[in-house]
Amino acid sequence: MASQARQRRTPAAGSKAADGDDVSVAADVTAAGNSTSPSGAPSSTPAGDNSKKQTDGPVTANGHASTSGEPADGGAPGQASDSKTSKASADERAAAPAAPSARQLTQYYRDMLLVRRFEERAARAYTEALIGGYCHLNLGEEAAVIGLMAALKPTDYLFTNYREHGYALMRGIDPNKVMAELYGRVDGVSKGWGGSMHMFDITHRLLGGYGIVGGQLPLATGAALAIDYRETGDVVMCTMGDGTAAIGAFHESLNIAALWNLPVVFVVINNHLGMGTTVEHSSAEPELWKRGAAYRMAAARVDGWDPVAVYQAATVAIETARSGRPYLLEVITERLKGHSVVDPAKYRSAEENERLKAADPLHLYAEKLIADEIFDELDIAEIEREVAATVADAAAFAANSPSPSVETLFDYTYASPVPNDSRRLPGQALFPQAPLPDTSGSVTP
Amino acid sequence: MSIMTYRQALHDTLRAEMLRDDSVLLMGEEIGVFEGSYKITAGLLGEFGPKRVRDTPIAEEGFTGAAVGAAMLGLRPVVEIMTINFSLLALDQIVNHAAKIYGMFGGQCKVPLVIRTPGGGGQQLGATHSQNIELYYAFVPGMKVVAPSTPADAKALLLAAIRDDDPVLFLENLALYNTKGDVPDENIPAQIGKAAITRPGRDLTLIGYSRMAHVAAEVAQQLASTEGIDIEVIDLRSLRPLDRETIVESVRKTHAAVVLEDDWLTYGIGAEVAATISDGAFDYLDAPVRRVAMAEVPMPYAKPLETAALPSRYDVITAIRQTLAAVGYRTGASAARVSTVGASQ
Question: Which domains are present in chain B?
Answer without folding.
Answer: 2-183 (3.40.50.970), 196-343 (3.40.50.920)
